[in-house]
Automatic annotation (TrEMBL):
Secreted found in the keyword field: no
Keywords, sorted A to Z: Membrane, Transmembrane, Transmembrane helix
Chain ranges passing through the membrane: 7-24, 57-75, 82-100, 112-132
Descriptive protein name: VanZ like family protein
Pfam families to which the protein is assigned, alphabetical: VanZ
Signal peptide positions on this chain: none
Coiled coil segments of this chain: none
Keyword tRNA processing: no
Domain VanZ-like: 8-132
Domain of life from the UniProt record: Bacteria
């Protein structure tokens, strides 16, 4: 039971992702357009391209953070390499469920390409964790 408390950040983050995914298409676009307007003040780039990039970077970031929280939850409960693998697997499965959830939200669409983008964010975090651990323990 004591070890369950280490999963609280991951659970809270999953709830956050669920809430963000539950917003309809217009609300979701308004959220990203707020950031697009700010960035367009500094960079001359096509509005649609920038909006696409911001949305996909947000996806990657959300799932990078989720992998980190799941990894933290698994910390010292299983071997290091299994921590990485299981963290990635859980993140991938949650990304799949998130895209399935979006199929039922007006103005949203669940796309496997988004699952791949989400998972790529998780893979980047996995690589960061791996390199960090390798730096701390060079004999691994």
């Amino acid at each position: 039971m004591k070890k369950l408390k280490y999963f609280i950040p991951a659970i809270i983050w999953m709830i956050f992702i669920f809430i963000m995914s539950h917003t309809n298409g217009n609300e979701s676009s308004n959220q990203s357009n707020f950031i697009v307007k700010i960035v367009l003040e500094f960079i001359n780039i096509n509005h649609e391209t920038l909006s696409f990039m911001i949305r996909k970077i947000a996806h990657m970031s959300e799932y990078a953070i989720l992998l980190l929280f799941i990894y933290y939850g698994l910390y010292k409960t299983i071997t290091y390499k299994y921590q990485l693998l299981i963290s990635l697997l859980i993140t991938f499965i949650y990304a799949c469920s998130d895209e399935f959830h979006q199929l039922f939200i007006p103005g949203r669409s669940g796309q496997f390409m988004d699952v791949l983008i989400d998972t790529s964010g998780a893979l980047i975090m996995l690589l960061i964790i791996y390199l960090w651990q390798k730096r701390k323990k060079p004999n691994q």
